[in-house]
Amino acid sequence: MATKAKNKDEKAPLEDVYFVWGLEREILYEDIIEATKEFDERYLVGKGGQGSVYRAELPTGDVVAVKKLHSMPSGEITNHKAFTSEIQALTEIKHRNIVKLYGFYSNSQFSILVYEFLEGGNLDNILKNEKQATEFDWNNRVNVVKGVANALFHMHHGCSIPIVHRDISSKNVLLSSNYEEAHIIDFGTAKFLDPNSNNMTTFAGTFGYAAPEIAFIMKANEKCDVYSFGVLTLEIIMGTHPAELISFLAENSTNNDLLLKDVLDQRLFPLTKPILDDVILVAKIALCCLNETPQSRPTMEQVSVELARTPKSYSEDQFHTITIRQLMRD
Questions:
Q1: CATH number of 14-116
Q2: For this structure, is 225 an active site residue?
Q3: pTM of the full structure
Q4: Out of 59-63, 138-142, 274-278, 301-305, which region has the weakest mean confidence (pLDDT)?
Q5: Per residue in 103-124, is it b (16+ CB within 10 Å) or e — as a string?
Q6: Which residue among the candidates 31, 62, 137, 167 is catalytic per the annotation?
Q7: To bridge 56 with a disulfide, which of 35, 79, 113, 158 should be the other Cys (CB 3.0-4.6 Å)?
Q8: What local confidence, expressed as pLDDT, does residue 199 receive?
Q9: Overall CATH class of domain 121-329
Q10: DSSP string covering 92-130, please?
């Protein structure tokens, strides 16, 4: 496998560290350039605001994902801060549901990050593809929700300094080839929460997933990730972004009589026991995470604990009468 990133001088700022591959750096760098044919579009598998991602098969047979950050005509990286933020966050975080960073390289012309490659692709594309969405069944969807929750719990409560992602969305979740396991990616906007700072920041995130308060508070905290997790969770069980449902809930706070069964992804087989109980629990938790008041949202620790419990049992007849208002009230 590609060598993990190692900072030869831990006291040096990341901006001053260029090649972080140990003794094999030049060979690995050349292998990546050869494997992508100098970042040819044939190997392009994704494109985002910060960079483009390529699939690279190394001479060893290992397949890695290579993220090349966008650069300006002068060759300067458009967002060097995102590059260093991603390295710092992924060096600190070690969790099965967070993508592994193998190494990085930066020179005057471009910067790249090398990750593990996930064959399943990103969640956004899977949900938009009829065949893939059907294969992404209820059991896998619940597992993916639990995986994202566990990763965020670890970031918020299991690291020496809490880390908020600030851009949890379906484009930033990759799945394994069998769609059973989720991996959070893209830590360019991640922020370490300094207990001695007010953690004020500029807007970061994706519209439609970002918590409503950050538009005017501009403060990084864990509850922003909790809100985004709620949106993502609804998207997973509905099969589409829940923008209309969220607007409906905001405008009809006393009349949320939509049936849960009517908003779930209709492309899948109808829900039956026992997964039925898990999906109801997931929906209830997601709605709690969308509370407009940050203090009223659960923590990711509370979410993870609830998802690990044995869910309340419902009959199939009960399931067909459960409304969104009931879930928000119970």
A1: 3.30.200.20
A2: no
A3: 0.87
A4: 59-63
A5: bbbbeeebbbbbbbbbebbbbb
A6: 167
A7: 35
A8: 54
A9: mainly alpha
A10: H---TTBPPEEEEEE-SS-EEEEEE--TTEEHHHHHHSH
